[in-house]
UniProtKB/TrEMBL annotation:
Gene: LOC103326588
Keyword Ribosomal protein: no
Protein name, UniProt field: TMV resistance protein N-like
Domain TIR: 13-178
Protein source organism: Prunus mume (Japanese apricot)
Protein origin, superkingdom: Eukaryota
Stored SMART domains: TIR (SM00255)
Amino acid sequence: MMPSSASSTPKIWVHDVFLSFRGEDTRNSFTDHLYHALNQRGIDTFRDDEKLKRGTFIGPELSKAIEESRFAVVILSKEYASSTWCMDELAHIVECMKKRELQVFPVFYHVKPSEVRNQTGSFSQAFAKHEEKTVLGEVGKWRKALTEIAIISGWDLDKARGESEVIQEIANKISNILTSMTPSDSDDRLIGMDSRIEKMEAFLDLKKHDDVRTIGIWGMGGIGKTTLAQLVFNNICNQFQASCFLGNVKDKSKNYDLVVSLQKVLFKKLLYSGDDIHNVHMGMNSLSRRLPSKKVLIVLDDVDHQKQIEDLVGMDWLGPGSRIIITTRNEHLLKAYGVHHIYEVEKLNDEEAFQLFCKKAFKKGHKMADDYTNLSKGVVKYASGLPLALEVLGYALSGRELGEWESELAKLKEHPDDNIINVLRISYDGLDKTEKQIFLDIACFFKGEDHDHVFNILDACDFYPESGIRVLKEKCLVKVIEGNRLWMHDLVQQMGWSVVLRDSLDPGKK
């Protein structure tokens, strides 16, 4: 008998999926194909002939594997119930389903769910034999387990469906659930995100299944574009046949060889294929032929050129119901590609910013003294709603004495943190020579000044402000606010000052 030890959920899952099957029925057919489909997606799957150590007693080892798995896929074939081993295994699976949050997916392999539920047909014959040789209490437990498993929604191969289609559906479902369970939704990442996620999901409009939608997430560096995209991805990915989050596209696309590697990731995640792609055009041709047949979710994170989007998802490659999310600092490329909606990520309000900073700066349960509260508010004001700055400074000040806080805050006003400035400077480095000059002039002299007045000064200097200021606005370096005044985030302005100090041999003459 298999031991019952399902009293508490393990802290760490060892396996993603436990496969329960009768070896003689499906080991070298359906189960084998399903096993490889799951592993192809990076899903750790336990089946007895692959994972059991030689020389160990099979009962406790299988029991432990069930308890350490997130999911169990039970392949109910005609002779499944004839195996006392399978029935013990199933009883333990049902027990863990109730006590250990094990999710169970039944597959009715050429048997009807009603046969399993009522133990008729081959199941009736199997139990007639069990009742001759086995303790009735055990038989009763097995009957109950079959009845409970049969009422769970699963896959029925008794209908006119191909095995390969069912295998892909099972693997897709588990893959999407696992993706949505990734440990990215920690409390600090969720601060201020609820309303932003709601807006994004409204733009995505998942109820419409016949169209393809592309949504842009736009904002300055460090504002939380990637975090928002990841949270939305985790929330909705299980509603698609396949999904893929491509992070840091800008850096990974600096040459065509790396673009090819990104295309290969799309093939693996969306088409479950290891197609032999030798160049970008071959990848584009293959993706454009095969993606229209699927409903997929794709996130392209940190894009800085329209061609990156076209090389990876084309202009009209995707099937009905598919969604694309693109994060970028450049509004223009989103408009040029023709996204359906652009969501500009807002900075955190004062309450959200204070909450995020305190999460990083103080240990859980720590009670702040008034002096720390006031200094924390000073840091929040300095960060001006930028999540990156709040996190960096929170980590830097965590565990420090009051005097160090005061010193650090005073220093920041003169010498901003390099970790923050280097992220913000990426946008500056992408400007041309004239655009950089306009940005530095606004940072040093014209922040808060009338837009038209500054425009005339820059125009007189032959700086082409019509296009220059437009580019700065598209890259979230400058805004025009109420009263027709030019504005930039305080930390962006500090980044501009630091450029002058670092890049000039005689900054006094700049």
